[in-house]
Amino acid sequence: MESFDLVVIGAGPGGYVSAIRASQLGLKVACIESRKTLGGVCLNVGCIPSKALLDSSEKFFELSHMKDHGIQIEKPKLDLKKMIERKNKVVERLTGGIDMLFKKNKVTRIEGKGKLLKADGALQKIQIDLNGSLKTIEAKNVILATGSAPTQIPFLKVDEKTVVTSTGALNFEEVPSHLLVVGGGYIGLEMGSVWARLGSKVTVIEFMDSLLPTMDQEIVRDFKKTLEAQGLQFKLGTKCTAYENKKGKALLTVETKDGAKETIEGSHVLVSVGRTPFTEGLGLEDAGVTKDVRGFVPVNDRFETNIKNVYAIGDLIGGAMLAHKAEEEGVLLAEQLAGKAGQIDYALIPGVIYTDPEVASIGFTEEELKLKNVSYIKGSFPYLANGRAIAMGKLGGKIKILAHSHTHKILGVHIMGAQASTLIGEAVIAMNKRMTLEDMAHACHPHPTLTEAMKEAAMAALGHAIHI
Amino acid sequence: MSFESVLAPQVGESIKEVRILSWKKGSGDLVRSGEVLLEIETDKASVEVAAPFSGKLEITKAAEETVLVGSVIGKIDTSVKVEAGAASASSSTPSASAKAAPSPALSNGSASPSGTIRKDKDSFLAEVSTTAPSVSNSPSTPRSPAATHVPEKLIPGETRKALSRLRLKIAENLVRAQNEFAILTTFNEVDLTQVGELRAKHKDDFKKKNGVGLGYMSFFTRACCLALKDQPLLNASIDGTDMILRDFVNMGVAVGTDRGLVVPVLRNADKLSFAQIEQSIAAFADKAKNNKLSIDDMSSGTFTISNGGVYGSLLSTPILNPPQSGILGMHNIVKRPIVVNDKIEIRPMMYLALSYDHRIVDGKEAVSFLVNIKKRLENPTELNLDF
To answer: Which residues are A382's β-sheet partners?
Structure first.
């Protein structure tokens, strides 16, 4: 029987990264993946393809709005087939890249469905279903990294044609005339944005009273207004109660908190009400690995499940269901298994929504600080007072900084605006290094750039912004 | 070739710099993961650092250099395979090697292999809420003073030698105590006739039973622990505008080594038997001799005993070990004529000195403490003997 120091089940961002890192550190590693291509949801049907479409649709949208810049263009024409093809090529290139990385780092790739068997002595046994033929391997340690799948709504059967998850929303063959987005989270807003830019009417139905309840609400309020100005419609505090497909029309019945019902007619429905840990066929019951009521696999502060030498990371263990969080966990766990150690600060997992404008944040929101009774000061700086933003014609947005009122250490940074996803990098380093407002404010930033808005926001928190 | 860095390890919360004492391996040597690579010295102790990887070593920072924690001090070419009994990562069970990692040679120098690696949000908040603003370049806060010291020119016959980190730290602590504390010393003397008789009577049995000799330290430690229960302020310390009182005694025992004075701490000394006290002190002395005392061994003391008597001191005024509020100085035992029951007798006498922080301890408590110790040592039945 083939034997490994470490077997990783799942080759998403958490799994493949931990496999590579463990191999770099001298462990004999195999990674089991049931998809034909590596990279998991993120690379195949998540972050990467959605960003490819976001960038394409943004270019399309911008071209239609070039007059102010003094550029006259005839109305651009959309070749959706080509746009989707390009997206597929991006995915191909990146997933192929992981194959190369596995080869370079001597990670054994096993294509098939991995299932944990009951441990036999000190070694874990994993059965692999290779297209019907079964093979068993053994490992000193197993990392479960099977990620998550879109949460389903019972009466909204997904066919990935009319009723779609994020996967189907990446592959529409024509631009939906009216896309009904059920669930106003990251995924719903990003995909809604893509299709709105390409010409769809988009209606977002959200059960909660506000969008993105875990994000800083001051930013979210601005963000909602901006999206509304772009034509997205929001129905908050509203739940879906029934669905009917009538002659190719998607009829969705919704109900507000007050009990007011209405039926909305759309061409397509995107179900994006969150993601559920994916453990089907993983053999957790046989191996005795416990799950909590929501299906997550609980781990201790060293990623150990209740079964010795069986670990879990990423979406499977809950927390922020984000690729970079899973990657970080994967690296740390691999290093731990090789006798090294590091730490992950769960307060410092950045989050980005790739709409236009982008929203990016790290650390605590103002709401959280109030709840935790932390004494804080805040400062913000609007894009419309930043020279570069004006030159770019990107006036919408702001950077908001929260800091501890005694120590001045930065507690949270929240951005809505152009290039927020890049700007947040500065806050990532600052907060990981426990920097203060003064540290940020007194660092010379290049002019003219959007980064000056970060410096000015810190100065505003200290009471002396220059440019506003 | 693929190089992995060897980093100067994080060895304690506040330690930012370490000094490389000596490399145990040379450039070009093949090293195995887990083998001792070098010895470093911090303000408090010296620590052995193990190789984090197997491969061929290349040293980039020489012995005697002072380096920042986390900086690169060497490289290991991991493409060079190390044969024969290699404790390489792939052949040892990873969980075992995680526990056995003998040194803090960490990947990112921030955590010990046994601690948590998943820090929750509240721990971040606690971290950024409690420290003073760490402003690196705010105009309102002066930058850390640059090295403005101009070295003196040497005249023939003079030589220059760098102070060790340990010596610099000792200096800093002593000056801090002198600057911040209101130190006062009170004296007394103790007749050790009975203690001496007890030792003579029990020393063979004690040694046979416990493997260590019955010294004076266990008597003094016990006497101090009991007296500290009666005068608890001497076991307390000032913290800002508060004071911290304790229902336990962590007894620091000052030990001179050839590299300077170190003070290992007997944890919960008030709960230790005479035998346990002597055994712990013997173990510490052994560690001190071999430079093996860890930071942990020397932290969290609440009171200190310093025995200058072993070097022949008649009388001294010890300096406090911040943030502690009391330190007892023991001295040499000399036969002196003293008056007992209106007769002059020859008795083995020792002068005692107690330095205390007058901000928190008043003269009455300090004097009572010394009298308390004196009485117990002169009537050892009051020492709750347990050997």
So the answer is: A398
Residue numbers of the domain that contains A334: 3-149+276-346
Instruction: Decide if B82 contacts B30 (C-beta within 8 A).
Output: yes
Strands A410-417 and A397-404: antiparallel
CB-nearest to A438 from B78, B89, B135 is: B135
For residue B322, is the peptide bond before it cis, meaning its omega torsion is within 30 degrees of 0?
no
Residue A243 sits at φ, ψ, to 5 deg, of -140, 140
Q: The domain spanning residue A442 has which CATH number?
A: 3.30.390.30
Considering only CA atoms, which of A380, A362, A382 is closest in space to residue A435? A362
The ipTM assigned to this model is 0.79
What is the CATH number for A211? 3.50.50.60
Residues of B in contact with A410 (CB under 8 A): 128
How far out from the chain centre does Cα A351 lie?
7
Residues of B in contact with A409 (CB under 8 A): 128-129, 131, 133-134
Which positions in chain B touch A309 (Cβ < 8 Å)?
Answer: 95
Check whether residue A229 and residue A285 sit in a common domain: no
Question: In chain B, what's the furthest Cα-to-Cα distance?
Answer: 87
- Active-site positions of A read 447
How near does any CA of chain A get to the CA of B51, in Å? 11
Asked if A225 has any chain B CB less than 8 Å from its own CB, the reply is: no
Mean pLDDT split into 10-residue runs, chain A, 468 residues: 95 97 96 95 93 93 88 92 96 94 96 90 87 91 96 94 95 96 95 94 95 93 94 95 93 94 96 95 93 95 93 96 96 92 91 95 97 95 96 95 94 97 97 94 96 97 93
Question: Are A439 and B136 an interchain contact pair (Cβ–Cβ within 8 Å)?
Answer: yes
